Every structure is written in structure tokens, then in C-alpha cells.
Amino acid sequence: MFPLASALRAATAVALLGGSALAGAAAATADPNTGNSTDIDTLTATLSKGYSLDNCQPAPLSGPVLAELDCGQSPDPNGPAAGVYQLFDNGTDLAAAFTSGIHGVSLSPCGDNGESPGTWRQGSYGQNAGQVACGTYKDAAVITWTTDAKNVLSHVRASNTDVNALYQWWRTNG
């Protein structure tokens, strides 16, 4: 099974089941299967707007992933139906996970960003921040991106196939 498929399946299960509520203001506690609390806290700091430990939960780890948070429906009505955020130890593992994660996605342009996959920029000088890919997977719009400086891979999934609407949400909140 491809990583994106399993990640989105897990996120969908969280969204459908409502997830489990964790104290968002407290430091994360982790069991050995979900990583250490420092890595979970590091990953929590990178979540898209609207996500926190109130609507995301640590997930069992596999491969080189140090921490994973599976998130349900964004509190923003225009936001994604689910999200998955993963922390890696290094850029090599991050890049490999990105490439593997978009396998099977029917790629389409990311709004005005052009080609997919491509790069995304951040800051007033438009510095390269990572890779981004947009498209559809199993009848849902998806965006997968890396935040290279933090070794984070993120996936969000819409409840419909409107890639442009999800991309616009991501540009504002991702």
C-alpha cells in the first residue's frame, strides 16, 4: 500500500470517528508506538491553522517517521476533511516520503503555482520552502507538501474533488 493511501485512510477514519480529544494546551504525551513527546510537540507546532492536539492525535509510527499526527475535519468550513502530518529526521527521508506519498495521485496544477509537483515559496523574499503536489486521489482533492527546514511532510484531503478550493485554503492556512 502506498504511504498516501494509508495516511489518508487513517485520517479518514479519524475524521469519521471524530478522533479522540487530547488536551491541546498541555504538552503531548506519547506511548512508544507513537514517538516521543518532544517530536510530537515539534510536529504540533507545524500544523495548519485550525489544527491542534484538540483535533489531531498521535498515530502509530512506521519506517523513518519520528512522529505522526492524524487530524480530522478542519474547524474551518472551507478547510480539509482530514490531514496527516509527519516529522522526519532528515531531508533524504523527507524527500523519499514525498515522492512515495504522491504515487497514485492524479496530479493537477496547484492554482497559480503551476506544475505539480513543484516548489512552494515562503517569506518576503520568496525563499524556496519545499515541494508541493496537488491532485485527486480516490475521488478527493489532496495536497501534499514538505516544509524542508523542519523535515515535515503534510497531506490534506478535501471531501470533494475541488483541487483549486483546497489549494486556496492551503495558501491561506497551510
Structure description:
- There is one protein chain.
- The protein is of the alpha+beta class.
- It has one domain.
- Helices cover 26% and strands 28% of the residues.
- The protein has 4 helices and 8 strands.
- Strands 1, 2, 3, 4, 5, 6, 7 and 8 form an 8-stranded antiparallel β-sheet that branches.
- The two termini are 26 Å apart.
- The relative contact order is 0.18.
- It comes from Mycobacterium alsense.
- Keywords: Kinase, Serine/threonine-protein kinase, Signal, Transferase.
- This is Serine/threonine protein kinase.
- Report the radius of gyration as a whole number of Å: 15 Å
Kindly report how far apart the N and C termini lie: 26 Å
Principal-axis shape: globular
Overall average pLDDT:
84
List SSEs in N-to-C order.
HHEEEHEEEEEH
Helix content: 25-40%
Number of discrete domains:
1
% residues in beta strands = 25-35%
The main sheet comes to: 8 strands, antiparallel
Number of helices: 4
Multimer state? single chain
Strand tally: 8
Structural class: alpha+beta
Catalogue the unreliable spans.
9-28
Set out the fold topology.
Blueprint: H1 3-17, H2 37-44, E1 56-58, E2 65-71, E3 82-88, H3 91-101, E4 106-108, E5 118-122, E6 127-136, E7 141-147, E8 152-157, H4 163-173
Antiparallel strand pairs: 1-2, 2-3, 3-8, 4-6, 5-6, 6-7, 7-8
Give a quick rundown of the structure.
It comes from Mycobacterium alsense. This protein has 174 residues and is α+β, with helices and mostly antiparallel strands. The protein has helices at 3-17, 37-44, 91-101, 163-173; strands at 56-58, 65-71, 82-88, 106-108, 118-122, 127-136, 141-147, 152-157.
